[in-house]
Each structure stands twice: as structure tokens, then as C-alpha cells.
Amino acid sequence: MIRFDLLLHEAWPAVENVRREGWVFRSAGGVTKRANSVWPAGPADDPEALIEAAEKFYADRGLPAVFSLLDDPALDELLARRGYELVDPTLLMVRELDAAEPADGDGIGDGVEIAEEPSDAWVDAWWSVDGRYADQGPAARAIITGVPADYAGVGPGVAGVGRGVPQGDWYGIYCMAVRPEARRQGLAREVLRALLHRGRTGGASHAYLCVTEGNAAARALYASEGFEVAGGYHYRVRT
């Protein structure tokens, strides 16, 4: 069975990773929840003690204690009893890549450029949409360049972007973003198709992505491109 939690952890690397028993405490200056949350990668003999250790770990860094939970109801219940709030329920969507390329060759992201490193314009486009963390551009760049990836950009001045991460048989889609003034022009679909094509030609047989439950527009786009919901995860944040 595929470990989506492992794929997510590897594709979105934190700047700091500290292993405590079967858990990993991750930190990246507060930029994104995934890179600043506990990944309960394995069982814990004393979860209460590890929770307390995590709370100290994040308090020492001036951050709230956050847990990323995928299919761990016991820990989820324990955190809820301790007053942790459930936030950002997110869907995992997957598709096979054997049919990623239309038979006639059209629609494979014409005009999309894919590079091995993100340009400043690429980062600016992504950060203009997802930059909820003030003055943290360097930390964000460290996360998105922490593993080999494909960086797709399209449109004048790089109006739409996406990031593809090769992970063996799997290809992860991340950082899908279109500048507000360039939306409703099909740029996100172009970027997505170009990345799927890159993943397939690179040898991957499946693709995955994650999208928040409330993002109806993105969910509709991904469903129209063959993605189906395969599971989900959420965060627990100490309030």
C-alpha cells in the first residue's frame, strides 16, 4: 500500500527534521503547515510524552504545535481532547498516467516552459498566490528546491506555475498557482497537462496531488483531468 504521508514528506522537505521515536518534528521558519508540523511516521510508546516534547520543540522556535494527520484516528482523538483544533481538511487525488497524453498530441501544455530550477519570476508568481507568510521568501525557496523537481511556467511574465516531483512510480503535483489577473484563461490546465506529460515521459505510472476540500474550482479542474479522491488528511493545531 502506498504511503502518501511519506510521499508528501519527501516532496515538501522541511529545513529542519528532528526524529523522536517514530515521529518527525519538522520546522521551516513557519512557512507552510506541512514543513512546520509533526509527522507521526510510526507508532509511539508514549504519545502523551511525545506531544509534550513537540509542544516544547515548537515553542522554542516561536511556532505553534501542529500535527499532520493521515489515517491516525487514535492520535487525532487524543489531540482533540488536548484542545487541538482541526484545520485545513485536504483531499488526496490520484490518477494513472498511461492516458495522460491525448492521442492527437494536442493540449500538452503548448507554451509551457519547464525548468530544473525555479526562476525568480516563477517563485514570485507562486508566492503572490500562496505567500501567506510575510518575509519568508528564502525559506519557501529552500522548501520547493529541497528535492529534484520540474518547475512549469506559462504566460507573460510567468502568470501560471506548477511544480512536479518525480518519486519513482509516482509524480507529485505541487505549487499550482495562477496570478489573479490571469485567471479563467486555462493556464492552470495547461500547466497541469504539461507536468502530467513530463511525469509520464519520465517513467511515472501514477500522479497525485493534494487540494483543500473547500477549493471547489481546483477540485473541478483536477477531476476533469482524470484525478479521483483517494483519501485525505488534516492538521491539528494547538490553539
How would you portray this structure in words?
The protein contains 7 helices and 11 strands. Helices cover 31% and strands 30% of the residues. It has 2 domains: 87 residues, no CATH class; 140 residues, Gcn5-related N-acetyltransferase (GNAT) (Aminopeptidase), CATH 3.40.630.30. The mean pLDDT is 92.
What is the class of the largest domain in the CATH system? Answer: Alpha Beta
Helix content range of the residues, please?
25-40%
Class from secondary-structure proportions: alpha+beta
CA distance, first residue to last residue: 34 Å
Number of helices: 7
Shape: globular
- Number of beta-strand segments: 11
Number of separate domains:
2
Question: CATH homologous superfamily of the largest domain, by name?
Answer: Gcn5-related N-acetyltransferase (GNAT)
Question: How would a textbook summarize the main sheet?
Answer: 8 strands, mixed
Strand content: 25-35%
Question: What Rg is obtained from the alpha carbons, in whole angstroms?
Answer: 18 Å
CATH topology label of the largest domain: Aminopeptidase
